[in-house]
Amino acid sequence: MPEKTSPEASRSTVAVAAGGAAELTEATVKKADQNKPRSLGQDAWRELRRSPLFWISSVLLLLFIVMAIAPGVFTDADPRQADLRGHYLSPPNWSHLFQADWFGYNQQGQSVYARTVHGARASIIVGICVTVAVTVFGGLVGMLAGYFGGWLDTLLSRITDIFFGIPLLLGGLVTLQAFTHRTVWTVVLGLTLFGWMQIARVMRGAVITQKEADFVTAARALGAGTGRILFRHILPNALGPVIVVATIALGGYISTEATLSYLGIGLQDPVISWGVDISDAQKNLRDAPHTLLVPATFLSLTVLAFILLGDAVRDALDPKLR
Protein backbone atom coordinates (compact mmCIF):
# COMPACT_ATOMS: atom_id res chain seq x y z
CA MET A 1 0.00 0.00 0.00
CA PRO A 2 1.31 3.50 -0.69
CA GLU A 3 2.50 5.47 2.28
CA LYS A 4 0.30 8.31 3.43
CA THR A 5 1.85 11.78 3.35
CA SER A 6 1.13 14.03 6.27
CA PRO A 7 -0.38 17.46 5.63
CA GLU A 8 2.73 19.13 7.11
CA ALA A 9 5.01 17.26 4.66
CA SER A 10 2.79 18.21 1.74
CA ARG A 11 2.85 21.87 2.70
CA SER A 12 6.64 21.73 3.07
CA THR A 13 7.02 20.16 -0.36
CA VAL A 14 4.79 22.81 -1.92
CA ALA A 15 6.75 25.58 -0.17
CA VAL A 16 10.07 24.20 -1.43
CA ALA A 17 8.70 23.93 -4.94
CA ALA A 18 7.33 27.46 -4.79
CA GLY A 19 10.66 28.78 -3.48
CA GLY A 20 12.53 27.03 -6.28
CA ALA A 21 10.15 28.45 -8.86
CA ALA A 22 10.62 31.95 -7.42
CA GLU A 23 14.42 31.63 -7.55
CA LEU A 24 14.17 30.33 -11.11
CA THR A 25 11.93 33.24 -12.10
CA GLU A 26 14.27 35.79 -10.48
CA ALA A 27 17.30 34.25 -12.19
CA THR A 28 15.46 34.31 -15.52
CA VAL A 29 14.57 37.98 -15.08
CA LYS A 30 18.18 38.87 -14.19
CA LYS A 31 19.46 36.99 -17.20
CA ALA A 32 16.93 38.73 -19.44
CA ASP A 33 18.01 42.12 -18.04
CA GLN A 34 21.65 41.29 -18.73
CA ASN A 35 20.87 40.26 -22.30
CA LYS A 36 18.73 43.35 -22.91
CA PRO A 37 20.49 45.69 -25.37
CA ARG A 38 21.81 48.87 -23.79
CA SER A 39 21.40 52.33 -25.23
CA LEU A 40 24.39 54.35 -26.45
CA GLY A 41 24.37 56.44 -23.29
CA GLN A 42 24.24 53.41 -20.99
CA ASP A 43 27.01 51.68 -22.91
CA ALA A 44 29.17 54.82 -22.81
CA TRP A 45 28.63 55.28 -19.07
CA ARG A 46 29.57 51.63 -18.49
CA GLU A 47 32.86 52.22 -20.33
CA LEU A 48 33.51 55.55 -18.61
CA ARG A 49 33.23 53.99 -15.16
CA ARG A 50 36.11 51.69 -16.07
CA SER A 51 38.36 54.49 -17.33
CA PRO A 52 41.04 55.88 -14.96
CA LEU A 53 41.30 58.97 -17.18
CA PHE A 54 37.63 59.72 -16.59
CA TRP A 55 37.93 59.59 -12.80
CA ILE A 56 41.18 61.57 -12.66
CA SER A 57 39.81 64.33 -14.90
CA SER A 58 36.44 64.33 -13.10
CA VAL A 59 38.04 64.80 -9.68
CA LEU A 60 40.20 67.66 -10.97
CA LEU A 61 37.30 69.37 -12.70
CA LEU A 62 35.04 68.97 -9.68
CA LEU A 63 37.72 70.63 -7.56
CA PHE A 64 38.09 73.58 -9.95
CA ILE A 65 34.33 73.99 -10.44
CA VAL A 66 33.75 74.09 -6.68
CA MET A 67 36.61 76.60 -6.49
CA ALA A 68 34.88 78.75 -9.11
CA ILE A 69 31.42 78.54 -7.52
CA ALA A 70 32.42 78.86 -3.86
CA PRO A 71 35.95 80.26 -3.45
CA GLY A 72 35.18 80.93 0.21
CA VAL A 73 35.44 77.20 0.83
CA PHE A 74 39.16 77.38 0.09
CA THR A 75 40.13 80.78 1.47
CA ASP A 76 38.65 83.71 3.36
CA ALA A 77 41.42 86.09 2.27
CA ASP A 78 40.49 89.11 0.16
CA PRO A 79 42.16 88.73 -3.28
CA ARG A 80 42.18 92.52 -3.77
CA GLN A 81 43.64 93.49 -0.42
CA ALA A 82 47.12 94.93 -0.99
CA ASP A 83 49.96 95.45 1.48
CA LEU A 84 53.02 96.75 -0.35
CA ARG A 85 54.92 97.46 2.85
CA GLY A 86 54.67 94.05 4.43
CA HIS A 87 54.08 91.62 1.56
CA TYR A 88 55.72 92.97 -1.59
CA LEU A 89 56.77 89.87 -3.61
CA SER A 90 56.97 87.80 -0.42
CA PRO A 91 57.91 84.16 -1.17
CA PRO A 92 55.61 81.22 -0.41
CA ASN A 93 55.25 80.17 3.21
CA TRP A 94 54.31 76.50 3.38
CA SER A 95 54.20 76.36 7.16
CA HIS A 96 50.56 77.54 7.03
CA LEU A 97 48.57 75.37 4.62
CA PHE A 98 45.70 76.98 2.70
CA GLN A 99 46.42 80.40 4.19
CA ALA A 100 46.91 83.71 2.41
CA ASP A 101 50.70 83.39 2.39
CA TRP A 102 50.82 79.77 1.21
CA PHE A 103 51.76 80.77 -2.37
CA GLY A 104 53.36 84.09 -1.42
CA TYR A 105 52.38 87.58 -2.58
CA ASN A 106 52.57 89.46 -5.88
CA GLN A 107 53.98 92.87 -6.79
CA GLN A 108 50.90 94.59 -5.35
CA GLY A 109 51.24 92.80 -2.02
CA GLN A 110 48.16 90.67 -2.79
CA SER A 111 47.83 87.00 -1.87
CA VAL A 112 48.69 84.79 -4.82
CA TYR A 113 46.74 81.92 -3.28
CA ALA A 114 43.58 84.01 -2.85
CA ARG A 115 43.81 85.44 -6.36
CA THR A 116 44.40 81.98 -7.85
CA VAL A 117 41.34 80.57 -6.09
CA HIS A 118 39.11 83.49 -7.09
CA GLY A 119 40.58 83.57 -10.61
CA ALA A 120 39.10 80.17 -11.40
CA ARG A 121 35.62 81.66 -11.76
CA ALA A 122 36.27 83.99 -14.70
CA SER A 123 38.46 81.51 -16.58
CA ILE A 124 36.03 78.59 -16.24
CA ILE A 125 32.97 80.74 -17.01
CA VAL A 126 34.60 81.89 -20.25
CA GLY A 127 35.44 78.32 -21.25
CA ILE A 128 31.99 76.89 -20.47
CA CYS A 129 30.00 79.76 -21.99
CA VAL A 130 32.04 79.77 -25.22
CA THR A 131 31.68 75.99 -25.51
CA VAL A 132 27.90 76.14 -25.06
CA ALA A 133 27.57 79.01 -27.54
CA VAL A 134 29.71 77.45 -30.29
CA THR A 135 28.04 74.05 -29.80
CA VAL A 136 24.54 75.51 -30.20
CA PHE A 137 25.38 77.79 -33.13
CA GLY A 138 27.82 75.50 -34.91
CA GLY A 139 25.59 72.48 -34.31
CA LEU A 140 22.60 74.27 -35.85
CA VAL A 141 24.60 75.35 -38.91
CA GLY A 142 26.00 71.86 -39.42
CA MET A 143 22.62 70.21 -38.92
CA LEU A 144 20.90 72.41 -41.51
CA ALA A 145 23.74 72.01 -44.02
CA GLY A 146 23.93 68.24 -43.62
CA TYR A 147 20.20 67.53 -43.70
CA PHE A 148 18.99 69.78 -46.51
CA GLY A 149 22.10 69.67 -48.71
CA GLY A 150 21.97 71.39 -52.10
CA TRP A 151 22.47 75.13 -52.33
CA LEU A 152 22.02 75.62 -48.57
CA ASP A 153 24.82 73.17 -47.85
CA THR A 154 27.05 74.91 -50.39
CA LEU A 155 26.34 78.37 -48.94
CA LEU A 156 26.86 77.39 -45.30
CA SER A 157 29.97 75.36 -46.13
CA ARG A 158 31.57 78.28 -47.96
CA ILE A 159 30.79 80.64 -45.06
CA THR A 160 32.33 78.10 -42.69
CA ASP A 161 35.44 77.89 -44.88
CA ILE A 162 35.82 81.68 -44.81
CA PHE A 163 35.73 81.75 -41.01
CA PHE A 164 38.09 78.77 -40.90
CA GLY A 165 40.68 80.96 -42.62
CA ILE A 166 40.79 83.24 -39.56
CA PRO A 167 42.67 81.73 -36.58
CA LEU A 168 40.80 81.84 -33.29
CA LEU A 169 43.46 83.86 -31.50
CA LEU A 170 43.79 86.40 -34.32
CA GLY A 171 40.02 86.77 -34.62
CA GLY A 172 39.73 87.28 -30.87
CA LEU A 173 42.46 89.93 -30.96
CA VAL A 174 40.78 91.87 -33.75
CA THR A 175 37.30 91.64 -32.24
CA LEU A 176 38.26 92.56 -28.68
CA GLN A 177 40.24 95.57 -29.87
CA ALA A 178 36.89 97.17 -30.70
CA PHE A 179 35.90 97.19 -27.02
CA THR A 180 37.36 99.79 -24.69
CA HIS A 181 36.11 97.92 -21.61
CA ARG A 182 36.43 94.15 -21.85
CA THR A 183 34.49 91.86 -19.54
CA VAL A 184 33.83 88.14 -19.40
CA TRP A 185 30.93 88.47 -21.84
CA THR A 186 32.86 90.46 -24.44
CA VAL A 187 35.58 87.77 -24.39
CA VAL A 188 32.88 85.09 -24.76
CA LEU A 189 31.47 86.95 -27.77
CA GLY A 190 34.88 87.36 -29.41
CA LEU A 191 35.78 83.69 -29.04
CA THR A 192 32.34 82.47 -30.12
CA LEU A 193 32.49 84.39 -33.40
CA PHE A 194 35.59 82.47 -34.49
CA GLY A 195 35.20 79.16 -32.66
CA TRP A 196 32.06 77.50 -34.08
CA MET A 197 33.39 76.15 -37.38
CA GLN A 198 34.82 72.82 -36.22
CA ILE A 199 31.58 71.92 -34.44
CA ALA A 200 29.64 72.80 -37.60
CA ARG A 201 31.76 70.48 -39.74
CA VAL A 202 31.56 67.60 -37.28
CA MET A 203 27.78 67.97 -36.96
CA ARG A 204 27.34 68.18 -40.74
CA GLY A 205 29.22 64.92 -41.28
CA ALA A 206 27.28 63.15 -38.52
CA VAL A 207 23.92 64.34 -39.88
CA ILE A 208 24.78 63.23 -43.43
CA THR A 209 25.55 59.77 -42.06
CA GLN A 210 22.40 59.56 -39.93
CA LYS A 211 19.86 60.93 -42.41
CA GLU A 212 20.21 57.86 -44.62
CA ALA A 213 19.61 55.45 -41.72
CA ASP A 214 16.61 53.10 -41.77
CA PHE A 215 14.92 54.66 -38.75
CA VAL A 216 14.95 58.08 -40.43
CA THR A 217 13.48 56.61 -43.61
CA ALA A 218 10.78 54.89 -41.54
CA ALA A 219 9.97 58.10 -39.67
CA ARG A 220 9.69 59.99 -42.95
CA ALA A 221 7.42 57.29 -44.39
CA LEU A 222 5.15 57.55 -41.36
CA GLY A 223 4.68 61.25 -42.03
CA ALA A 224 7.03 62.78 -39.44
CA GLY A 225 7.80 66.43 -40.08
CA THR A 226 11.24 67.89 -40.70
CA GLY A 227 11.53 69.31 -37.19
CA ARG A 228 10.63 66.00 -35.56
CA ILE A 229 13.04 64.07 -37.73
CA LEU A 230 15.88 66.50 -37.02
CA PHE A 231 15.45 66.92 -33.27
CA ARG A 232 13.91 63.59 -32.23
CA HIS A 233 15.69 61.13 -34.51
CA ILE A 234 18.84 62.56 -36.08
CA LEU A 235 20.16 64.93 -33.40
CA PRO A 236 20.36 62.40 -30.50
CA ASN A 237 22.31 60.00 -32.71
CA ALA A 238 24.64 62.68 -34.10
CA LEU A 239 25.59 64.27 -30.77
CA GLY A 240 28.33 61.77 -29.86
CA PRO A 241 31.21 63.19 -31.92
CA VAL A 242 30.05 66.75 -31.20
CA ILE A 243 30.25 66.17 -27.44
CA VAL A 244 33.77 64.80 -27.79
CA VAL A 245 35.00 67.77 -29.83
CA ALA A 246 33.29 70.29 -27.54
CA THR A 247 34.77 68.75 -24.38
CA ILE A 248 38.30 68.84 -25.74
CA ALA A 249 37.83 72.35 -27.17
CA LEU A 250 36.65 73.71 -23.80
CA GLY A 251 40.17 73.55 -22.41
CA GLY A 252 41.43 75.31 -25.52
CA TYR A 253 39.03 78.21 -24.98
CA ILE A 254 40.25 78.64 -21.40
CA SER A 255 43.87 78.76 -22.59
CA THR A 256 42.93 81.20 -25.39
CA GLU A 257 41.31 83.52 -22.85
CA ALA A 258 44.50 83.38 -20.78
CA THR A 259 46.59 84.14 -23.87
CA LEU A 260 44.44 87.14 -24.76
CA SER A 261 44.63 88.42 -21.18
CA TYR A 262 48.40 87.91 -21.21
CA LEU A 263 48.63 90.04 -24.35
CA GLY A 264 46.52 92.74 -22.69
CA ILE A 265 43.54 92.24 -25.02
CA GLY A 266 41.41 89.89 -22.89
CA LEU A 267 40.04 90.42 -19.41
CA GLN A 268 41.07 93.51 -17.48
CA ASP A 269 41.14 94.65 -13.88
CA PRO A 270 39.13 94.57 -11.70
CA VAL A 271 38.30 91.11 -13.11
CA ILE A 272 40.43 88.40 -11.48
CA SER A 273 41.49 85.57 -13.76
CA TRP A 274 44.49 83.34 -14.24
CA GLY A 275 45.35 85.08 -17.51
CA VAL A 276 45.35 88.51 -15.89
CA ASP A 277 47.61 87.31 -13.06
CA ILE A 278 50.03 85.66 -15.51
CA SER A 279 50.19 88.89 -17.49
CA ASP A 280 50.89 90.96 -14.36
CA ALA A 281 53.54 88.50 -13.14
CA GLN A 282 55.71 88.48 -16.27
CA LYS A 283 57.61 91.58 -15.16
CA ASN A 284 58.76 89.83 -11.96
CA LEU A 285 59.51 86.38 -13.34
CA ARG A 286 63.18 86.42 -12.28
CA ASP A 287 62.67 87.94 -8.84
CA ALA A 288 59.43 86.17 -7.88
CA PRO A 289 58.67 83.24 -10.20
CA HIS A 290 55.92 81.99 -7.87
CA THR A 291 53.65 84.86 -8.96
CA LEU A 292 53.55 83.37 -12.47
CA LEU A 293 54.03 79.65 -11.83
CA VAL A 294 51.07 79.25 -9.48
CA PRO A 295 48.28 80.58 -11.76
CA ALA A 296 49.98 78.99 -14.78
CA THR A 297 49.97 75.59 -13.03
CA PHE A 298 46.26 75.84 -12.19
CA LEU A 299 45.53 76.88 -15.77
CA SER A 300 47.51 73.95 -17.18
CA LEU A 301 45.81 71.44 -14.86
CA THR A 302 42.37 72.70 -15.87
CA VAL A 303 43.12 72.46 -19.59
CA LEU A 304 44.68 69.02 -19.08
CA ALA A 305 41.61 67.82 -17.15
CA PHE A 306 39.25 68.80 -19.97
CA ILE A 307 41.48 67.16 -22.57
CA LEU A 308 41.63 63.93 -20.54
CA LEU A 309 37.86 63.99 -20.11
CA GLY A 310 37.40 64.48 -23.84
CA ASP A 311 39.70 61.54 -24.58
CA ALA A 312 37.77 59.33 -22.13
CA VAL A 313 34.41 60.32 -23.64
CA ARG A 314 35.75 59.70 -27.16
CA ASP A 315 36.91 56.21 -26.22
CA ALA A 316 33.56 55.45 -24.58
CA LEU A 317 31.44 56.66 -27.50
CA ASP A 318 33.50 55.04 -30.28
CA PRO A 319 33.32 51.21 -30.15
CA LYS A 320 36.22 50.94 -32.62
CA LEU A 321 38.62 52.47 -30.08
CA ARG A 322 37.86 49.95 -27.30
UniProtKB/TrEMBL annotation:
Cellular localisation: Cell membrane
InterPro entries the UniProt entry points to: BP-dependent_transpt_permease, MetI-like, MetI-like_sf, OppC_N
Record GO biological process: transmembrane transport
Organism, scientific name: Streptomyces mashuensis
Residues that span the membrane, as ranges: 53-74, 124-150, 162-179, 185-203, 234-254, 292-313
Domain of life: Bacteria
One Pfam short name: BPD_transp_1
Similarity comment: family membership: Belongs to the binding-protein-dependent transport system permease family.
One Gene Ontology cellular component annotation held by this UniProt entry: plasma membrane
Residues covered by the ABC transmembrane type-1 domain: 120-310
The protein's name in its UniProt record: Peptide ABC transporter permease
Keywords: Cell membrane, Membrane, Transmembrane, Transmembrane helix, Transport
CDD domains, A to Z: TM_PBP2
Record-linked SUPFAM superfamilies: MetI-like
Bilayer disposition of the protein: Multi-pass membrane protein
